[in-house]
TrEMBL record, chain A:
Pfam family, any one: SBP_bac_8
The keyword Protein biosynthesis appears for this protein: no
Transmembrane segments: none
Organism expressing this protein natively: Arenivirga flava
Superkingdom: Bacteria
Annotated keywords: Signal, Transport
Signal peptide start and end residues: 1-21
Gene3D superfamilies: Periplasmic binding protein-like II
UniProt key word Transport: yes
Identification of the protein by name: Sugar ABC transporter substrate-binding protein
A single cellular component GO annotation: cell envelope
Family according to the record: Belongs to the bacterial solute-binding protein 1 family.
Protein localization: Cell envelope
Automatic annotation (TrEMBL), chain B:
First-listed, main subcellular location of the protein, grouped into a coarse class: membrane
Annotated coiled-coil segments of the chain: none
Record PROSITE patterns: ABC_TM1
Segments of skewed composition (Low complexity): 14-26
Classification via Pfam families: BPD_transp_1
Subcellular location: Cell membrane
Entries under InterPro entries matching the protein: ABC_transporter_permease, MetI-like, MetI-like_sf
Membrane-related topology note: Multi-pass membrane protein
Domain ABC transmembrane type-1: 92-303
Family to which this protein belongs: Belongs to the binding-protein-dependent transport system permease family.
Annotated spans, Disordered: 1-26
Record protein name field: Sugar ABC transporter permease
């Protein structure tokens, strides 16, 4: 533990020093300075370990790591594209990928991959998104993956007379909610102490909700319905990537959405935007017994004060399997960089087992290479964090990725706000057909 | 107001005022040079930060411009699309609803406050307190209000529940969100307009009120028959400022609701921002800005004319 802390501390120290060091050595004719940006504060620290190793092996290249919070990050990158000073290399997210690639801002990597014999098969995950783009090029090397699971308050679970096994094996269907609905009904308690599955339960005066809200969630329902609707066999787009329309109108999706609204009426989950605090705060304050969140929050929940948090994988649905939304980020090179070679050296090093193992050693994210993943799982276990609720999806092959589509930000802004009409109760399921039409219109407009 | 000051160049004004005297021409030229020198910084600022961006905006509104590639001339396509864009019209409706609420309340609150201040107190300290909210940044005010009005943890809802009411989703309920935003804006700006109206009140000579009293008029009657008509020029200015300010509402919405829930608070500026900086569709966003610009010009001009803002009833 102490060495780990020391390492983290020194890594952070290095990170802080970099901008200063960058300034002082920038003038040296011998060294080339390249920048690498990330929005993830934890990964910024983790990857400093790779940076040190890389600079030792390549003394002529100086890497500058910078981290900005999500919103600022994309604003700065876009401004950088326009102003001609975007970072040489940066971490890219699937939702921004098509926009940037379509605008010619990402450097195609396939020639360098061929020349250097870089084997893409080393990646256990992420190639559905980051493999060949629609123009046949490869623009990014997938670096990590993440998915969703349930986090619950172990004490509240025990009080309800439920076991970890009950939660780990929950089944679900949109008609009666399966054992999942039984569990959350049991976990819900009203202000008189009556449980959701007992007579006399008052749905209008709930003290502890069994589950955080499943309403909302934007276009892909990442932290809400994405682990439910697809277990009926339903898919968001009509193709794995580059769909021509979304399919909310489908009966399976409609049934799921209506079941979610019924949970609000039954008092088992909060209403849309009823809670304005984050889910970690909801679980921490005891106002909900169970939430759904991503693997990137494993450390956050483990460190939650005064609550013993357990985790469980998503539900087994009508198709007899789980389905969990997974996302992979990738390292990319900006097309406008003046240091193409050095940039490739760096991001191809980021894509090695060696670097991913180094960076994964402090257990803050899941690397995309299987061997490095093993090391990371051990690192999590050393911290006393059980990752099996997430990794079981990886092992069972039940992860799925959100489709790539052009016009992403426009679809996001248009379709999300239409879906809110349903979640606020202002419109009924007839709005879904309109959402599909709106998505199809935007996709058609952006198709080449 | 600012525009007026900038667009009336000093040298030209002086030249027309002076009777043409040939002997003074060299001196005038000397003056002109100095004048140009002195106003050069503000002219430069105006050209760089206002005129050029505005003209560029006009140009971009006739193009398909997605920032990362060069703008492509598409004529009136953006405006044709605008005509059929339901989201644009609904956001315009939301904006007008917001403007009406904000302007009506601001006028009411600021005139009332100013008259009460004027009649009851001469304490500078109390007058200064009125303007305090105006000195707080919009973003800070919006953040603080969004905490206070939070449905779950906000002090306002805690108070409502303590009094036996049900919690209100001030910023998350479709019906509440625009009135709530209007109230925040009124709280923010009423102090400033109060001071303006107050200054207007001070220009009314007390003799008029004395005369009114002698004629047997009460406070209310004097307010309606004397104060309001004499305040008209300043009221017209305050009205124009408030209307323009309200049409341009953005930061408070961006911080508190981002246009939600379900676009209920999607004001025009928010939609323009989302199109430009969220979806990189700068051409379309410029077209919307141009339409807003045209509307504001028409509205301001109409207001100035209808209220005869440049004339005073004081003899």
């Amino acid at each position: 533990m102490t060495t780990k802390k020391l390492l983290a501390a020194s890594a952070f120290g290095v990170l802080v020093m970099i901008p200063i060091a960058g300034c002082s050595t920038g003038g040296d004719s011998g060294t080339e300075t390249i920048s690498w940006w990330t929005w993830d504060d934890k990964q910024a620290v983790s990857y400093a370990a790779c940076e040190t190793a890389f600079e030792d092996a390549n003394p002529a290249i100086d890497v500058e790591i910078k981290q900005y919070v999500w919103d600022d990050y994309w604003a700065k990158i876009t401004a950088g594209f326009v102003g001609g000073n975007a970072p040489d290399t940066f971490m890219n997210h699937p939702s921004y990928y098509p926009e940037f690639a379509d605008q010619g801002q990402l450097l195609p990597l396939e020639d360098r991959i061929d020349e250097s014999g870089f084997d893409l098969d080393r990646y256990a995950i992420g190639l559905t998104t980051w493999g060949e783009y629609k123009d046949g090029s490869v623009y990014g090397l997938p670096k990590d993956w993440s998915t969703m699971a349930f986090f619950y308050d172990q004490d509240l679970l025990a009080e309800a007379g439920l076991t970890a096994e009950d939660v780990a094996t929950m089944t679900w269907n949109p008609e009666d909610g399966g054992t999942f609905e039984d569990v959350i009904a049991r976990l819900t308690v009203d202000t008189n102490g009556v449980r959701g599955d007992e007579a006399g339960f008052d749905a209008d005066s709930v003290a502890v909700y069994g589950m955080s809200t499943l309403t909302g969630g934007g276009i892909n329902g990442q932290d809400t319905w994405a682990q439910f609707a697809p277990t009926t066999g339903w898919e968001l787009g009509d193709a794995e990537n580059w769909p021509t329309t979304f399919q909310y109108e489908d009966d399976d999706y409609v049934a799921t959405a209506e079941w979610i609204r019924s949970l609000v009426a039954k008092g088992y989950t909060p209403d849309f935007e009823e809670f304005t605090t984050g889910i970690a705060e909801q679980l921490g304050s005891g106002s909900v017994a169970m939430v759904q969140s991503g693997s990137w929050n494993l450390n956050t929940f483990a460190a939650l004060d005064g609550v013993n948090v357990g985790s469980a994988p998503s539900v087994v649905g009508p198709i007899g399997e789980r389905r969990a939304l997974s996302g992979s980020n990738a390292d990319v090179i900006w097309a406008g960089t003046e240091h193409e070679d050095a940039a490739w050296e760096w991001i191809s090093y980021l894509g090695t087992e060696e670097c991913q193992t180094l960076a994964g050693a402090d257990g803050t994210f899941f690397p995309s290479i299987a061997e490095a993943m093993t090391a990371t799982t051990e690192a999590f276990a050393e911290q006393g964090i059980d990752t099996s609720a997430f990794t079981v999806q990886f092992e069972d092959g039940t992860l799925y990725e959100s489709p790539l589509f052009s016009g992403g930000t426009e679809v996001q802004s248009t379709v999300s706000s239409m879906s809110e009409l349903f979640w606020t109760g202002e419109r009924d399921s007839d709005v879904f057909a309109e959402m599909d039409e709106a998505s199809a219109a935007i996709f058609a407009e952006h198709a080449d | 107001m600012t525009t007026e000051r900038i667009t009336a160049p000093a040298p030209a004004g002086r030249a027309t005022l002076r009777p043409p005297r040939s002997s003074a021409s060299s001196a005038r030229r000397g003056d002109a040079r100095l004048a140009w020198l002195l106003i050069a910084p503000s002219i430069l600022g105006f050209i760089v930060f206002a005129a050029y961006p505005a003209l560029r905006g006009v140009y971009l509104s006739f193009t398909d411009y997605r920032v990362l590639s060069d703008p492509e001339w598409i004529g009136l396509d953006n405006f044709v699309e605008l005509g059929g864009d339901a989201k644009f019209w609904s956001s315009l409706g939301t904006t007008i609803y917001f403007v009406i609420l904000t302007v009506a309340l601001t006028m009411l609150v600021s005139v009332t406050t100013a008259v009460v201040l004027h009649r009851l107190t001469s304490s500078t300290a109390i007058r200064s307190v009125v303007i305090l909210p105006f000195l707080i940044s919009n973003v800070v005010a919006a953040v603080v209000f969004s905490w206070m009005l939070d449905r779950q943890l906000g002090i306002v809802n805690i108070a409502i529940e303590a009094l036996g009411g049900d919690a209100v989703g001030f910023l998350t309920d479709k019906g509440w969100v625009v009135p709530t935003l209007a109230l925040i804006t009124v709280w923010k700006t009423a102090g400033y307009t109060t001071i303006l109206v107050f200054a207007g009140l001070q220009t009314i000579p007390p003799q008029i009120y004395e005369a009114g009293k002698l004629d047997g008029a009460g406070e209310v009657q004097m307010f309606r028959r004397l104060t309001l008509p004499l305040l008209r020029p300043i009221m017209a200015m305050v009205l124009v400022l408030t209307v323009i300010g309200a049409f341009q509402v953005f930061d408070i919405v961006q911080v508190t609701t981002k246009g939600g829930p379900a676009n209920a608070s999607l004001v025009l500026q928010m939609y323009i921002y989302d199109k430009a900086f969220g979806q990189f569709d700068f051409g379309y966003a410029s077209a919307m800005s141009l339409v807003l610009f045209a509307m504001l010009i028409v509205i301001s001009f109409a207001q100035m004319r209808l209220l005869r803002a440049s004339e005073s009833d004081q003899g």
